[in-house]
Hints:
Elements: H1 5-35, H2 40-67, H3 74-90, H4 98-107, H5 113-144, H6 150-175, H7 177-197, H8 206-223, H9 225-252, H10 258-274, H11 283-293, H12 299-324, H13 329-363
Helix pairs in contact: 1-12, 1-13, 2-3, 2-5, 2-9, 3-4, 3-12, 4-5, 5-6, 5-8, 5-9, 5-10, 6-8, 6-10, 7-8, 9-10, 9-12, 10-11, 11-12
Amino acid sequence: MKLNVRNLLIGLVIVIVLAVVLLRGDQLVELIETIKKGAAIPLVAALCTQLGKYFAQSFAYSFAFEAVDEHMDPRSTLPLVFGTFFMNTIAPSLNLAGTTLVVDDARRRGIAPGKATSAALLMQITVDTGFATIMLIGFAILAFTVGLSPLWFLLGLLVIALVAAMVLVLVLGRKRPALVLRVLRPIERLVDRIRARFKKGPLDPWVERMVCSFSDAAGLIAHNPKATAKTFGCSIVASSCELACFTLVGVGFGVTVPEALICGYVVATLFAMISITPQGVGVVEAAVVVAFTSFGVSSAAGLSIALVYRGIVFWMPFLIGAILIQTTKTFKHEAKKSVRAQHKNDRLRGVEGQAKRLDAVKEDPVIPAKRPKPEEAPRKR
C-alpha cells in the first residue's frame, strides 16, 4: 500500500486530534459530569446559538470575497470556518494561523493570492473588531463596577493593536505599495539565496505580483462598501451569538448578573486568543473563574460555566474542523495530484515494460514463429 500526501495529512490530523484528546481527555469526562448539573433548556439553546455563530461566519467569509470581486458561496466557506479553528488550535497565533488555509484554498479555486489574502485579512479584521466592540463594553462595565485589572487592560490594548496593524496593512497596500515592496524585498532575496544553495533557480518576481494584486484587492474593498459592511455585520452577529452562548450557559448554572456574564465572555475570548496553549486550554478556565469571583459568583459555579462553555466552543468546532478540513481544496488538491502522479508512474512502468519485452525479443535466438499464410482466393471453375 503506497502512501500519498493526502494520507499523510489525514494521518497527521488524526494524530493531533488523538494527542489533544489524550492530553485533555480528563476534561471531557469532567464536562459530561458537569453538564448533568445544569439546566437542560438553556444549555441546548447555548449549543444552538454557537452553531449560529459558525453559520454567520460562513456568510461573512462569502461577503469578504465578494468585497474583492470574487465568489465563494457559504457552503464552500463553512468548512473553512471550522478548518481555521482547527489550524488556530494546533498553531496558536492570535487566530491568524487559519488565514493560510483560507488563502491556499482560494488560490486553488483560481483566486489571485493578493485577493485571497485581502479577503482573509478583511474577515479577520471584522472578527477581531466585533469582539473588540464587546470587549470595550465589558471593560467599561468593569471600570465602573469592580475595577479594571491593569493586566486585562494591556491585553485589550494588544487586541486593538492587532486590529490596527491589519488595517494598516490594507491601507499601505493601496496607498503606499512601494513601501510594502521595500519591506518584502529582503524576504524575496533570502528565499532566492536559500534556493541557490539547493542549486535551484530564483523564483519569479512574486513580490511585485503579490503587492500589485494586494493593492488592487484593497482598492476593490474600498469600492465595495456594501459587501464590506455585510462582512462586518455578519461578524458582529457571530460575536453576539457567542456572547449569547456564554450567557445561556451562565443562566443554566444559576448566574444571571449581566456584568459578570459579559465580562466573563470577554475574559474567556481574550485569553483564548493570546494564550500560548491551544485556544487557551487550561488558562481560559482559570481566568473565567477569577472574573466571576470578582463579581461575587462562587468559584464552583464559575468553574462549571467555564467547563461547559469551553466544551461547546472548543471541543465541538475542533472535532468538526478535523473532519471538514479534509473537504477543503488544499486536501482535495493533494489527492488529485497524488492520483495524477500514480497514473504517470503507471504509464512509465508500462512503457518501460514494453521496452524490456522488445529488447528481450531482439536478444532471443529462437526463430520466430511462422506467419500464417494469407487465405487463398477461391479458384474459378
